[in-house]
Amino acid sequence: MYASFYVNEKKLQNTFKGISILGVYISTYFLVWAFWYRADFPEYMYYICIGIIAVLSTYLSYQLISSRNSILDKIRLLTNHIVFKGKSHVPVEKRKDYVKDYVETFNEIVD
Prior knowledge:
This protein has helices at residues 10-35, 43-85, 95-110. The chain is an all-alpha fold. The protein has one domain. The protein is elongated. The two termini are 27 Å apart.
């Protein structure tokens, strides 16, 4: 599911998303089915509950990955703005120090 957000071709991206959503749904369904103790409700109620849990967990997984990627895109946009467009607001005599400062900051983040 995570990799499907990085595929550029729309048709292939939709195929990846569909397969990954189906895979997450099925795997969640069987994990819940395997570990859920069935003793006090009719059997069909368990299957309905397991299906609902699988759908909700798949939706939450998709939303979590989607929001993470959205936040990363915003951080990338702001960083590019600061690094590349910020130079025009720094006096020429201080640009070398400006570049050195943000490179050091990025190195701290990466390490």
